[in-house]
Design brief:
mainly beta; four-stranded antiparallel sheet; globular
Amino acid sequence: LTFLPYHFLLATIGEGGVLQYRDVSTGAHVAQHRSKLGPCACMAHNPHNAVVHTGHNNGVVNLWSPTVGTPLVKMLCHKGPVRALDVDLGGRTMVTAGADGQMKVWDLRNFQCKHAYFNPTPASTLAISQRGLLAVGFGPHVQVWKDALEGKAKSPYMNHSLPGSHVQQV
């Protein structure tokens, strides 16, 4: 579920892999697209251009627009399922986390991987702040990475542990 605030659109995708757009001002159904890839593990939107990114179990991230019935771009990002993704505020960088333990930083201008990080436990949630900090949640741990989008950082800026719990969202 993601909301496109400048378009007043609510984008949803369910277990069947059907992406639907609904206008929240009128309640009207705007568009419906079948991904044909089964359940969607994660979804985010690009705040710069309102393109919706969906991550799937075959390692593919699709980029969608409500006016086009097929994905604008299909990116093979991971060897396994995509578990989390987020796009920075400027719309130039996407970060994906896969079940293969990789966390990859992508340049959306040329759709190439800038660099990758390895986690022994696959990340389950990602968030990029307005100042470019990257928060990564996996198991009972949260890491915050500083300057991880521009270049490859050597270690996290901050670590936080929540013993006995599982981080759902950062």
